[in-house]
Amino acid sequence: MKGFLKLSTLVLTRAILSAAFPGAPTVEKRRDGPQFSNGQPVDGNGKGAPILGGTNKQIDLQNPDNLGQQLTDNGVVPNLKWSFSDSKTRILKGGWVREQVITDLPSSHDIAAAQQHLTKGAIRELHWHRVAEWGFVYSGSILISAVDESGKHEVAKFNYGDIWYFPKGAAHTVQGLEDENEFLRVFDEADFDRVGTTFNVDDWIARNPRDILAKNFGLDESVFENVPSPNPYILNGTVSTRNVTGNPAGELTGNASFVYRTFEHPSESVPGQGGVFYKIDSTNFPVSKTIAATFVQLKPKGLRELHWHLNAEEWLYFHQGHARATVFIGNGNARTFDFSAGDTAAFLTTRGKHYIENTSDTEDLIWIEIYKSDRVADIPLTQWLALTPADIVAQTLKITLSVAKTLKKEKQVLIKP
């Protein structure tokens, strides 16, 4: 009788839980093997239990490593990931913008960024920043126009893979040329939304007395009656058909140019044969003195080898595919993150040792790395060990001398599966 009552109580309890939490997993799932891919923190070996309370199932499914999947994770590592999908989108006539700044990702101390979309003819109004801006076109085509402190100008059309760099203070604007156009903007200042960082030309003009404006421009005051206030940020327009001519200072060309055509340059050597790696920094884009970058395409199941950066934090934007990275920050502390298209991340300088793995069986992983520096610099783990006396490495890692002697002395960069 007692056994019957216990069984009845168990059945009733499960019925109540099922009614209160529809779809909640049953305890039996603990014995069905690992449940991380089903969004549950259960390892199938006696650790963990199903989530019965409120949870965002889609986020759990996208981040199995947050559920304890990696047994090597340990200690406390701050969140190093932010998705543009979690950013507030500002919609405007002619497009939209969504940002990731330091209040979104506090671990990104050097870099802020934005995705921006312009329809055909739409203009990101004339403006400038007290910080440098770096941009990458990933859909459509755009027209940029810029002027530097010497009065030299540059007007150029950008397509997929093209990059611009505007030094701090350089005046510029962007216009969409195709029906839909989208690009990444990066800034060498994490607190980018702080007042005094961006200045829009119509906002400035609207804040001056009209008699001063008339005197400055040598025009009648009535000319400035319709200057927008507040400034529109993005505005609809028609595609520009005019060229800038007669500039006595001339154009920005050669090493002074703000334009870099990524795919017109050779990619870097990748001994690991795992993909394609482009480096864009002051060594090949001389004007870009405060932002260095890479464009990376990694084959399915490939690996960006274990490494760290010694001169700047690494900020990442994942454009295509799915990835995993374990970040080790010292003293036994490590945490694994899962990434999808639209995610950003910030890995700490020197302390943020990591790899990046393409977790897809079929799809290439594409991402951009950004550094607040004049150059891209990293130290791979394998190369470091290979260039240390083999007997010291063998004794330290408790491996055989013969294995230590086989470690590759050349950077592999991207390793094929």
From TrEMBL:
Leader peptide range in chain numbering? 1-20
Q: Spell out the catalytic residues.
A: E369 (proton donor)
Is DNA-binding given among the entry's keywords? no
Cofactors that this protein relies on? Mn(2+)
Keyword Signal, does the record have it? yes
One record GO biological process: oxalate metabolic process
- Record-annotated residues binding Mn(2+) 2? H307, H309, E314, H354
Keywords on record:
Manganese, Metal-binding, Signal
The UniProt annotation places Mn(2+) 1 binding at H127, H129, E133, H172
Q: Which Gene3D superfamilies match?
A: Jelly Rolls
Q: Which InterPro entries match?
A: Bicupin_oxalate_deCO2ase/Oxase (IPR017774), Cupin_1 (IPR006045), GPI/OXD (IPR051610), RmlC-like_jellyroll (IPR014710), RmlC_Cupin_sf (IPR011051)
Q: Where is this region: Disordered?
A: 26-55
| UniProt-recorded Gene Ontology molecular function terms | metal ion binding
Cofactor binding, note field: Binds 2 manganese ions per subunit.
Q: Which residues form a coiled coil?
A: none
Its recorded name reads Oxalate decarboxylase oxdD
- Species of origin reads Podospora fimiseda
